[in-house]
Amino acid sequence: MKNIANVVHIGELIAVSKVFQLNPFRMVTLIEDGLMEVFQDKESFIDKYGNKDIYDELDDWCELNNGKVFTKPK
Length: 74
Description:
This protein has one domain. The protein is 38% helix and 14% strand. The protein contains 3 helices and 3 strands; from the N terminus they run ααβαββ.
C-alpha cells in the first residue's frame, strides 16, 4: 500500500471528491487499490491515455489548476 499523503494533498482530495461526487475516504481507497489514478501533470496522463476528446476507458477525469490529473474509474 502506498502512502497517499506523498501523492495527494487533502485539499486536492476534497476538491476532486466534489467533482466526482465521491467522499474523500472512498477516493483514498480507490487510489490505494489502484483503481483511481493520480498523475502529477497532464503530460503523464496524455502519455498513458492519449490526447482525445472522449476517453471511453474512463468514467471521468479532472485536471486541477496545479497540473495534477485524477481519473475516475468506470
